[in-house]
Design goal:
- The protein is built from 6 helices and 14 strands.
- By secondary structure, it is of the alpha+beta class.
- It has a domain of about 140 residues: Aminopeptidase, CATH 3.40.630.30.
- The strands form 3 sheets. Strands 8-9-10-11-12-7-13-14 form an 8-stranded mixed beta sheet, with helices on both faces. Strands 1-4-6-5 form a 4-stranded antiparallel beta sheet, with no helix packed on it.
- Strand 5 and strand 6 form a beta hairpin.
- It starts with a helix and ends with a strand.
């Protein structure tokens, strides 16, 4: 009995702080620590059930009088990209995706810093050191992998890194944890392209879902997730097709 209790996760609630997505609101999070003594199926069910992973912490919104954050997942087998998404895929045919174990590199960190400074300089990740970045990539008790996207080698044999995605393998899909890319090539729509690529990868692997984290009603930052249809959203009644 004692062993069973020690393996069961303990949950905690953060203090209220300003919401980064909806101005004028406060957010709190429910979280638990993910450790290797926890059963794998339990961690898998947490991540399939609306929790997100950051290193070895699983968290979900736990806000007073607000339920704007809704977990979403793409229905892989039914997904058919519309014309605008097909154009983005064509615009990136010169990229080569390489999937590898979750290991950080100085090249990744340099690209990460460029992305953060250009897109999220006032956010919570702006102060991340190279050690912080390494922990973000490596510190995981689930099967985590990195996908690097590079341009095809030029005449000098150079193949610069242009985008990176950190993902978890769940029992029924791919959970996209964090992605970043070269901010100097906005026409490529690399954030969208990486989702398209992971949907194609999930289909090849036989996974039914790609988890995109939270869609947030009223947040412009999250509108891009509406482009990936059909999808399901997690409600009080379970996963429901939107």
């Amino acid at each position: 009995m004692t062993e069973h209790k020690s393996n069961f996760p303990e949950f905690y609630i953060t203090a209220p702080q300003p919401c980064p997505y909806l101005p004028g609101r406060l957010e709190r999070k429910l979280f638990t620590h993910l450790t290797r003594d926890k059963p794998g199926f339990l961690i898998d069910n947490l991540l399939k059930g609306g929790f997100r992973r950051s290193q070895n912490i699983a968290y979900m919104p736990y806000c007073d009088a607000c339920s704007a954050c809704v977990p979403v997942r793409i229905l892989v087998d039914e997904f058919e990209p519309k014309r605008s998404l097909r154009r983005i895929a064509r615009d990136n045919l010169d990229l080569v995706a390489t999937r590898m174990p979750a290991a950080p590199s100085s090249e990744q960190y340099s690209l990460f810093r460029d992305y953060i400074e250009a897109r999220h300089a006032d956010g919570g990740m702006a102060e991340m050191s190279v050690l912080d970045y390494s922990l973000m990539v490596e510190d995981s008790v689930v099967e985590t992998f990195v996908t690097e996207y590079r341009r095809k080698p030029d005449e000098r044999g150079e193949s610069p890194l242009i985008a990176v995605s950190l993902c978890d393998r769940l029992s029924d899909g791919i959970s996209m944890v964090y992605s970043f890319y070269d901010p100097d090539v906005p026409a490529r729509s690399l954030g969208t392209y990486m989702i398209l690529d992971h949907v194609a990868f999930a289909r090849r692997q036989g996974y039914p879902f790609v988890y995109l984290g939270y869609w947030i009603e009223g947040s412009r930052k999250m509108r891009y997730k509406d482009r990936f249809q059909p999808q399901e959203r997690l409600t009080a009644k379970g996963w429901v097709r939107s």
